[in-house]
Amino acid sequence: MSTKIKRKVDIAEITTSRTFLLVFIILTVYPILFVALTSLKSTEEFYTNVWLWPKKFAWSNFPKALIDAHIGAYFMTSLIVVAISVAIILLFGAMAGYALARLRVPFTGLILFLLLSTTFLPSEMVIMPLYIMMSKMKLLGSYYSLIIPYVGWSLPMTIFIFHRFFKTLPIELLESARMDGCTEAQTFTKITAPLMMPAIATCAIFSFVGLWGELLWASISLSMSSLRTIPFGVISFKSQFATDWGPLSASITLILIPLIILFLFVQKYFVQGITGGAVKG
């Protein structure tokens, strides 16, 4: 009797979990599909055929978004800013995480606590001081006004993830390298670097996704400049073309493409980083 009851409970748990998972997938994927389908419709068809498959593919929406609305230029600006920012974040985050995990830095726990505490500050709290600082340094409206804050905002969590990753590496591995005459720099680059892909993938995706869609600071720092990141450009594009939903959806689809490509390339290591050493306690 108890076995039958347990089996029924297991079936109920599996059914419930799969139902929630299915609902979550639908809620996540459907908006993406909706935007992709809308990008292939003309504005006239959008108002008469909102939910169904396009009757005629309006491929002209993409050239209109890329050229007429300058989304192509905004795309390149975002790509340059985010790529440079992520590269700096990964480099310095990995070195700082290694130092805190394996070089016996005093007050490591306090340093990590202070770093992580900065991530809980509301972004509105730092916008005004940051704007004043960038203005006095005459960096507003430039690539530097985006890259420097982006690096500063993403480094604390990146350092924490790398720190937890390096803590999972066997200390014997590092000690044997030192006994063979390797310096700390050689140990870092030759011994630990080949093992860092899960942590790198985890940090790269988190940083890229967060920075690629960042709008608040970009709209403030670039308000007096001709530079535009792609989220800021989409806002301008919407106000310029009002209800031209086809090209607007095409520009949003273009925003999603780099995120999908990045995840497809590093999904294997990302899953390892999430479930394994990158965040293992």
UniProtKB/TrEMBL annotation:
Residues 75-266 form the ABC transmembrane type-1 domain. It is a multi-pass membrane protein. The keyword Ligase does not apply. GO terms for biological process: transmembrane transport. Belongs to the binding-protein-dependent transport system permease family. Keywords: Cell membrane, Membrane, Transmembrane, Transmembrane helix, Transport. It is found in: Cell membrane. One of its GO terms (cellular component) is plasma membrane. The keyword Membrane applies. The chain crosses the membrane at residues 20-40, 71-98, 110-132, 144-166, 187-209, 247-266. This is Carbohydrate ABC transporter permease. It holds the Pfam family BPD_transp_1.
